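Hi support team,

I submitted a single chain yesterday and got back a structure, but I'm not sure I'm reading the token output correctly. Could someone confirm the output below corresponds to the sequence I sent? I've pasted both exactly as they appear in my results page.

Thanks,
R.
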Amino acid sequence: MTEQEGHAIVEQLQRWGDELGFSQIGVADVDLSDAEAGLLDWLDKGFHGEMAYMQSHGLKRARPQELVPGTVRVITARMDYLPRHTAANWRSHEWQRLHTASEAVVSVYARGRDYHKVLRQRLQQLAERLQQQVGPLGFRVFTDSAPVMEAELARRSSQGWRGKHTLVLNRQAGSLFFLGEIFIDMALPLTAPTSSQGHCGSCQACIDVCPTQAIVAPHVLDARRCISYLTIEHAGPIAPALRPLLGNRIYGCDDCQLACPWNKFATTSRLPDFDARNGLEASSLAQLMRWSEADFMQRLEGSPIRRIGYERWQRNLAVAAGNALRDNALSASVRAELLHNLNAWSVTASTLVQEHVDWALQAS
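Hi R., thanks for writing in. Yes, this is the structure output for that exact sequence:
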């Protein structure tokens, strides 16, 4: 393959990617050796919390050629997920909901269809198109589904830079996008990396706004304090000291993204998959607390939320309800409904849920 042929293939990949709904396609090298020290330091400090899989794979995360033998390049892809009909003032609206204790706030990315399924299917189609064009090709598709340093590969292939909140930022699209990869055994030309220094300058809005101060230093996240980790990855009781800091966030947290100036450029998705379902963009705590386990399973079919299970869903809602009950601005009618729901849960609650229900009821 000549250099000219290689560049032509990359350009074709970018056209196919656009047709499939991707926002950008790049090509990264597999040598991530200079990122290994930072990964090991983060793991040694225990910042990964209970995410044992982060440690069990060791340095495979920084060595794509060990994860998938024969890999010589990684095709990287990003896909915007801000829902199609999002209003221009969406960030102000999200802040308002966060400051309305009776609301139930779900992270924007999780309000629609499970991104794992959306990206995986389209990455597979992209890889198959490439295979049809070039002939036999060894490839494997990933979407947040294996030990892959997604953000680092994205930076090295011109997708953006690592913000101080550790998410990838793009000058034209902010940070509201998903990442995916195709490991291939074909030496395609690389796309230019984005500067590791990025374009955050002296801004630390994301650090300052984090409710739990989980961003312990620029580019360093202690997941054990992160609300996204606590409400999604963490399986046990949420520490009492952290519960008040969760506010009304019941699945994930977007505060660092809402505060980031670059997200004034956040781009809406072209796909209907990420449109909000089941009213998750505007639901109250009382509404969601009325869902039975059967409702939870049926309504959230195809949603990333379903994977936490009904028990953690109840745990998170109980914490949010307790925080709402501690808000003096809460109306008497909403207060009464939240108390009714919490007391009703006590009849059948698991030990985990009951602990958080009891904590919430202490506010009454």
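A quick pointer for reading it: Residues 103 and 284 are 4 Å apart (CA to CA). Let us know if anything else looks off.

Best,
Support desk
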